[in-house]
């Protein structure tokens, strides 16, 4: 088959993947929906599906979910056998492999652009053959328009656009993280499209804090996706059970009836979802994760907040030849996903070696590339001295915030990893915290000098 006529020369799997991407990737659908045509497919059921998608998009300006496609097929295709074949094909599209999706998108878009350019060149040749040289401007505009197929302007907006919404007090619609002192400084929490980063050395409680944020968001009625790489799913489940019951993880089994009653009550009363997803560490890219999230959304799973535990376990899409640049690209990929899918994003990253013994962890103690810090809208650090660990305390700091007050330290907050209880106490600025520590040192020196003086007096006596 002539490769210039349709997608058939690329094989059935490619076409299944292409249809899958048109449905699950809204930005890609926007770029290709107007130029992808039915005759680019030879399989009649592929044609029916792309026709349903195009008609739906024309009416609602969005691709339908797989569930919606099934409903359309059942209601609009009268012949039972044809309807069954379309439903089976939709299932194949839904189950199409996500690997290589970037290649599929680029190849399909280039094909469609080439077809549009070929149509324009045919028209242009007719104008030239007709001797209509005065229509040069028209020719130039036709070719320019064909070359711009698939280009989407995502960031341009008139300054006077949507004034009522911009001036609304609640224009951000933030989702609280569940720690009152910090939520207040973040003007209610993070909003959709914004990302927050938890910075802490190993063993301090990054997963604990992310689980608390996930649990609190779910309790408020939001749909939560909690992705983790290193923990056992049962451990994360038990953390949530502890948050709902107040029973320590080690005691959940002995109080099983009470726990089951509480969990059943929550399950029956909440209509939203808290989905836990375990992924392999150090093998997945942000594009692959994004595709999995898109697929979940296309299958009808609404997501308001995603928690990625943690960003250091994601590998870059491309080897940029510089480890730090690659780490920055992963964080930018996470930010891009949250912005594109309009969801709140929280993740965590390891502190470097010096952060382990720090009383306050600062942004420059982030492990790896500082570019990770540049991308985040909010960075919250957690530090624990040995004494604080023993007393179930921590020092939490807002080291960066694009949406509220930063440079604030909460010293000796309650941070119980077992019961997942985190409460902020009175706060000071970084400067105030430093002055406080200097004063404590001076007091300690005075105290030691006084004790020494007393010992000398006792000797003389």
Describe the structure.
With 461 residues, the chain is of the alpha/beta class. The chain has 2 domains: 141 residues, DNAb Helicase, Chain A (Orthogonal Bundle); 260 residues, P-loop containing nucleotide triphosphate hydrolases (Rossmann fold, 3-Layer(aba) Sandwich), CATH 3.40.50. Helix content is 50%, strand content 13%. Strands 1, 2, 3, 4, 5, 6, 7, 8, 9 and 10 form a 10-stranded mixed beta sheet that branches.
In brief:
This protein is α/β, with parallel strands linked by helices.
Summarize the SSE layout with pairings.
Layout: H1 12-24, H2 26-32, H3 44-60, H4 66-76, H5 80-94, H6 101-129, H7 136-147, H8 163-166, H9 180-185, E1 195-200, H10 206-219, E2 224-228, H11 233-245, H12 256-269, E3 274-278, H13 286-298, E4 305-309, H14 323-341, E5 344-350, H15 371-375, E6 378-383, H16 386-391, E7 393-401, E8 408-416, E9 421-423, E10 427-429, H17 430-460
Parallel strand pairs: 1-5, 1-6, 2-3, 2-4, 4-5
Antiparallel strand pairs: 6-7, 7-8, 8-9, 8-10
Following the backbone from N to C, one meets helices and strands in this order, namely: HHHHHHHHHEHEHHEHEHEHEHEEEEH
CATH-defined topology of the largest domain: Rossmann fold
Strand-residue proportion: 5-15%
Q: Write the CATH homologous superfamily of the largest domain.
A: P-loop containing nucleotide triphosphate hydrolases
C-alpha Rg (nearest Å): 28 Å
User: What is the SS-derived class?
Assistant: alpha/beta
Q: Which geometry do the CA atoms define?
A: elongated
Distance between the termini: 109 Å
Number of helices: 17
Low-confidence segments, given as residue ranges, are none
Number of strands: 10
Helix content: 40-55%
Q: Tell me, what is the CATH class of the largest domain?
A: Alpha Beta
- Quaternary state reads single chain
Query: Architecture of the largest domain, CATH level 2?
Result: 3-Layer(aba) Sandwich
